[in-house]
Amino acid sequence: MGICVCVFCNLMFSLLQDQYDVIDKHTQSGLDLVERYVKFVKERTEIEQGYAKQLRNLSRKYLKRGTKEEQECRFTNHQAFQDVLNELNDYAGQRELIAENMITGICVELTKYLRDLKEERKTYLADARKAQQNLEISFKQLENTKKRFAKEWGEAEKAIQQAERTENDITATKAEVDKMKTLAHGRTHTAEESRNDYAAQLQKYNKEQNAFYYSEIPQLFNKLQDLDERRILSLAKGYIQFAHTETAVLPIITKCLDGISTAGKNVDAKQDSIRLIEQNKSGFDRPADVEYEDYSQAIKPATSENNINHPKVRTKLWPFTKKAKVCTPPAEDFSHLPPEQRRKKLQSKVDEINKELQKEQDQSDALVKMKGVYEQSPQMGDPASLEPQFQQTAQNIARLRGELRKYESWLAEASGDDSTNTAVNNNNKHRQIHNTLYDVSLSRSLPADLSQNIYSEFDDDFEEDIEPPIGQATALYTFEGASEGTVSITEGEQLSVMERDKGDGWMRVQRANGDEGYIPSSYVQF
């Protein structure tokens, strides 16, 4: 019976060990699969990032670079290609977003969850191993008590048999018989105690074995089963997230692709042709008909070399002439260009100067407001600290005004606008008159012959009406008129106001010596 129990227990332990190894191997393979999937997603994100980087480099490589004129080219087929590159750049951004979302939504989450699963699995397997070790220790104790019981019971039987033989021996004395009976009784009592110990240990082992097989091990295996199922569900969610990450950006990707299609649909060949014509229209007149030259008439003898009729040379037609390569820089007034192109260039230059002038005027207005705030609240700042900025802004505005008048006169010349030319000429006349007045004031101290020359020049220009002053003003600050069109003034100087401020922060004044020009309106008291 003891041998059968021992063999059965060893068989159970062997089967249990086999199942334990199976579960250990299975759960470990599941965790390895999660690690493989995380590694797979990481490599996928590296591919996405590399793909996005290549797309960005590609779009950056073919984006328009060059001169300002080339960048401002507005041909629809050129602009469509730029739109395609911009949409491709946005598409690359969505690929980067896919990689980023996969890293954060799959790799990071699964890696963290995998770490928790490993710790949990390690705990469960350690508990199962500990329970099995406890059962094996209890079984060894049972084996020891069983062997002790068998040994004690065998010795008790021998003692009883020895006592019976002694009692049946007629030669044995009573003392010997009593001694053998006492020894047999002691052995029997010890055997009974070892039997009781064995029975108790057996009962304890059976109880522990039932708890092990019906409670502890099933609970641990159920926990491992639950762990593995949770691992499988998390992995399945990772598979779904893999697809949803790309699905989430598909609307934007579709929008980028639609933008590329729209760019292609916006190409207008006819509009590009018209724009090319407008941009390069020269304005030259078509050449006249070639006159007929009759060589059949007899040539009259010439009296001199100047009377010789040289044959007329036909000039080249301008659309087919080749431009000579000239190393000289282009003229400031764009006179090197055809009439129509020159007019467009001058108009663009005037618009550009007007924008810069508006910026400077806005800055001047801001400085005036700031100065007013400083004067009302001295703790916020010193008004005198704005003086350099006032002077710099005034110089910039005066310089821009001079350039604007210069380019407007060229534009009027190129456009053939008589009214504009007249206004420019009148303005120049007024300036010449004021300069002449200054010369007259100086001529009083000059000799008669010199003053007569000055008066004669003045009389020629004085046919126009002299513009009278509209008021007087006192200079509050010193202003250095270093730019064209401005005039320098000193603090406390009395000035004649020739033109009021028209809202741009400037007014035209005349000094006592005849100098005339523009100054900041905030620098004087009218």
TrEMBL record:
Protein name from the UniProt record: Thyroid hormone receptor interactor 10
Signal peptide extent: 1-18
Coiled-coil segments on the chain, per record: 114-183, 343-370
Record domain SH3: where: 468-526
GO cellular component terms listed in the entry, alphabetical order: cell cortex; cytoskeleton; lysosome; plasma membrane
Location in the cell: Cell membrane; Cytoplasm, Cell cortex; Cytoplasm, Cytoskeleton; Lysosome
Annotated InterPro entries: AH/BAR_dom_sf, F_BAR_dom, FCH_dom, HR1_CIP4_FNBP1L, HR1_rho-bd, HR1_TOCA, SH3-like_dom_sf, SH3_domain
Coiled coil among keywords: yes
Species, as recorded: Esox lucius
Gene Ontology biological process terms in this record: endocytosis; signal transduction
Keyword Signal included in the entry's annotation: yes
Keywords recorded for this protein, A-Z: Cell membrane, Coiled coil, Cytoplasm, Cytoskeleton, Endocytosis, Lipid-binding, Lysosome, Membrane, SH3 domain, Signal
CDD domains xref list: F-BAR_CIP4-like, HR1_CIP4_FNBP1L, SH3_CIP4-like
GO molecular function: lipid binding
Family annotation (SMART domains): FCH, SH3
